């Protein structure tokens, strides 16, 4: 009886410790996740562990940047035939900088999308406010200046510049004195707002759950065990009623979708063709009679589909719906990962991954950046940091 009592006491102590977040935080970090519900993915250099807040001790993986390394870096090439050595801009090194006195740099996005914000790293604090940003829209040869840009200083050598567009951008140009000391340029492709959101499907086949398609892992091609553990799969025989649906916990703006098919090219009679002619629909919150629809034009099945709305979807999104009603070859919806890159929609004065934080700007009427919490007017008295959220000692 006494042994039983000791066991129960130990169990209570263990539960108490876990409820305090200690066990959860350690397990999250070791498995590559962070957050109070392990809902955010670490993107640290060398696959290192991140802290409970997402901080990486050795910096971000080269494909990611920004707060907690959550923002996708849009890949780009340098436009034009300049004879200058521009490797300093694409070497993923913030310490190598322009040495040729260039006064402008134009980049060409590998995947054009709407522009939201960029981060510029320089070698001189004096250059941080000496920047002009312009862009070129898809199907246009004209350069458009970003007249409504706002900037927020991150630290002594880093500045974030907001320049939201409604249409798809193909080129981004930085000019002005800032280019002479520029070391790195990060063009935001958005944050994966679909990650670990609530997913449903019409009916689940075996253990191919709907949530598998937003677990951050697209699986290993031609590896059935890997795909089964990380892909979704509706049941056979549902006909036109088969679907996969994602509901966001908070309204979001999305600039592009990347959908990973079930990538098994060795099984040509099986799986990749299931997504041919798929339809993607997005809807706002209940009560708003609006939607955006994209239907795959068909042709050979693709292992990865990229959907870039143009112009930008004009309303905050609450629900994503994917089905294959026009595909008479199959009545199954199989998805290995659905990425939705964008940002949450916060009310004025709020920011954060769930709009959970208050802006602390020097100018109280100033709206901080939803992505970072940064303030164009600087931090309010008593606050410091990239997000103006850390109290000064």
Number of individual domains? 4
CATH topology call of the largest domain: Jelly Rolls
The percentage helix is: under 10%
Unreliable stretches (pLDDT < 50, length at least 5) are: 1-21
Shape: globular
Number of strands: 26
Oligomeric state of this protein: single chain
For the biggest sheet, the summary is: 13 strands, antiparallel
Distance between the termini: 53 Å
Q: Supply Rg.
A: 23 Å
The CATH homologous superfamily of the largest domain is called: Galactose-binding domain-like
SSE arrangement, N to C: HHEEEEEHEEEEEEEEEHEEEEEEEEEEEE
Task: Report the total helices.
Answer: 4
Please state the average pLDDT score: 89
Q: Kindly provide the name of the CATH class of the largest domain.
A: Mainly Beta
* Approximate strand percentage: 25-35%
Layout: helices, strands, pairs:
Layout: H1 2-19, H2 22-30, E1 33-34, E2 40-41, E3 64-65, E4 71-73, E5 76-78, H3 87-90, E6 104-114, E7 117-122, E8 132-137, E9 144-145, E10 150-155, E11 158-162, E12 168-175, E13 182-192, E14 198-201, H4 224-230, E15 232-233, E16 243-260, E17 279-283, E18 292-295, E19 304-307, E20 317-323, E21 334-335, E22 337-344, E23 350-351, E24 357-358, E25 383-384, E26 390-391
Antiparallel strand pairs: 1-2, 3-4, 4-13, 5-6, 6-12, 7-11, 7-13, 8-9, 8-12, 10-11, 13-22, 14-16, 15-21, 16-19, 16-20, 16-22, 17-18, 17-20, 23-24, 25-26
């Amino acid at each position: 009886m006494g042994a039983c009592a000791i066991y129960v006491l130990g169990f209570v102590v263990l539960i108490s410790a876990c409820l305090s977040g200690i066990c959860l935080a350690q397990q999250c970090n070791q498995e590559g996740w962070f957050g109070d519900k392990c809902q955010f993915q670490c993107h640290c250099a060398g696959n290192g562990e991140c802290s409970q807040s997402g901080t990486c001790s050795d910096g971000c993986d080269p494909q990611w940047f920004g707060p907690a390394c959550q923002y996708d870096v849009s890949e780009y090439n340098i436009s034009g035939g300049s004879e200058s050595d521009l490797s300093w801009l694409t070497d993923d090194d913030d310490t190598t900088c322009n040495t040729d006195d260039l006064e402008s740099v134009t980049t060409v996005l590998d995947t054009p999308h709407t522009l939201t914000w960029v981060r510029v790293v320089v070698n001189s604090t004096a250059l941080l406010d000496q920047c002009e940003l312009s862009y070129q829209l898809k199907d246009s040869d004209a350069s458009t200046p970003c007249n409504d840009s706002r900037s927020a200083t991150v630290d002594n050598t880093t500045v974030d510049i907001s320049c939201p567009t409604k249409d798809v951008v193909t080129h981004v140009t930085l000019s002005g004195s800032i280019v002479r000391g520029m070391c790195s340029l990060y063009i935001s492709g958005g944050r994966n707002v679909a990650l670990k959101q609530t997913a449903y499907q019409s009916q689940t086949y075996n253990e191919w759950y709907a949530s598998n398609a937003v677990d951050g892992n697209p699986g290993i091609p031609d590896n059935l065990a890997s795909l089964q553990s990380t892909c979704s799969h509706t049941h056979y025989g549902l006909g036109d009623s088969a679907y996969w649906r994602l509901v966001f916990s908070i309204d979001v703006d999305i600039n592009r979708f990347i959908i990973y098919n079930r990538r098994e090219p060795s099984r040509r009679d099986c799986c990749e063709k299931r997504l041919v002619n798929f339809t993607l629909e997005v809807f706002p919150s209940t009560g708003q009679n609006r939607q955006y629809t994209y239907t795959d034009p068909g042709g050979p099945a693709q292992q990865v589909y990229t959907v870039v709305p143009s112009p930008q979807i004009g309303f905050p999104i609450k629900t994503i719906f994917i089905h294959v009603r026009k595909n008479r070859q199959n009545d199954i919806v199989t998805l290995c990962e659905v990425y939705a890159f964008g940002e949450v929609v916060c009310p004025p004065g709020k920011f954060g991954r769930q709009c959970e934080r208050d802006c602390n700007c020097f100018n109280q009427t100033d709206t901080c950046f939803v992505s970072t919490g940064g303030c164009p007017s600087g931090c309010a008295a008593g606050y410091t940091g990239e997000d103006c959220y850390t109290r000064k000692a």
